[in-house]
Write a structure and sequence with these properties.
Blueprint lengths: L1 H17 L10 H36 L11 E5 L5 H9 L4 E8 L5 H15 L2 E7 L3 H6 L6 E3 L5 E3 L1 H21 L6 E5 L6 H8 L9 E2 L3 E3 L2 E2 L6 E2 L16 H8 L6 E3 L4 E3 L1
Parallel strand pairs: 1-2, 1-6, 2-3
Antiparallel strand pairs: 4-5, 6-12, 7-12, 8-9, 10-11
Length: 278
């Protein structure tokens, strides 16, 4: 009986030694946890504030840097599936003799054809070489055709025309004049794709001057509702992963993310966004 009681007392003593007591006889573990939690929370807040201040500083610095003037004598082939008034200003800035504008209109429902004819007249007045194709085939005509190459089985249980395949074919149409020009000895330093996003001449100049012009391809980020960006389908970070989120810092890769936060060009494996220079 005494032995059982002694064993019980010894076991209780061991438990007491594993649970340190404060001066009031209470366990200090909850207080330790609270201290650790407060410390981590404080570090997180401080880090977030410092990072926000760093990004704000980088943004304000970039805004004060004037865009670099266009590279002299560089010839630009502008391939466009959409039209924007800024094309005229871009032609004036870069020099009509240094650009070629190729536009492919794919059977739009609004008055795009009329607007493009006006653009054609203005480019002609400036002396800009160009190719303008107005197609009567609309997307509705494409999806009404019998399934062929570019059609896929979708989760909705239907066979549908793959949008990327359709758009890629339209973009390739805008590049066809390059072959004819090359046969005549006319070559270009860069190809510039314009999408349907709003852009300025400074945007284009900044893009073309990325990394002092040394790159395989460069593109912008375009935003639906800032800071949320769109066109996530083709973007893969420096590790080849999809983007982590649609808001800053976007990327899963630390290399791509850190470059973005430093307001530097972010390296990626693939991309296709608002304005592209492949």
């Amino acid at each position: 009986m005494y032995q059982t009681s002694e064993n019980t007392f010894v076991l209780s003593s061991i438990k007491l030694r594993d649970s340190p007591l404060d001066s009031g006889g209470r366990s200090s573990k909850p207080r330790l946890y609270r201290c650790v939690l407060v410390g981590l929370s404080t570090c997180f807040i401080v880090w977030t504030v410092l990072e926000a201040l760093f990004i704000q500083h980088r943004v304000s610095t970039v805004d004060r840097i004037p865009p670099t003037p266009p590279r002299q004598f560089e010839r630009i082939f502008i391939a466009s599936t959409h039209w924007n008034n800024a094309v005229i200003q871009l032609a004036k800035t870069w020099g009509p003799e240094n650009i070629f504008v190729s536009i492919f209109e794919s059977g739009s429902w609004d008055d795009s054809k009329g607007a493009l004819r006006d653009l054609d007249l203005e480019l002609d007045r400036l002396g800009v070489r160009r190719n303008l194709t107005l197609s009567e085939i609309a997307h509705q005509d494409e999806i009404s055709r019998p399934p062929s190459e570019g059609w896929i089985d979708t989760p909705r249980g239907r066979k549908e025309l793959r949008r990327i395949h359709y758009l890629a074919r339209l973009r390739n149409q805008t590049l066809r004049p390059l072959e004819d020009l090359a046969r005549n000895g006319i070559v270009f330093d860069k190809v510039l794709f314009l999408n349907d996003v709003v852009f300025t001449v400074d945007d284009v100049i900044s893009l073309l001057n990325t990394n002092d012009g040394v790159y395989a391809a460069a593109c912008s980020l375009n935003f639906s509702k800032p800071p949320r960006y769109c066109d996530t389908f083709a973007v893969r970070d420096s590790n080849g992963d999809e983007t982590l989120m649609q808001e800053c810092p976007y990327f899963r890769s630390a290399t791509s993310r850190d470059a973005l936060l430093a307001m530097s060009p972010a390296p990626v494996k693939s991309r296709w966004n608002g304005i592209d220079q492949p």
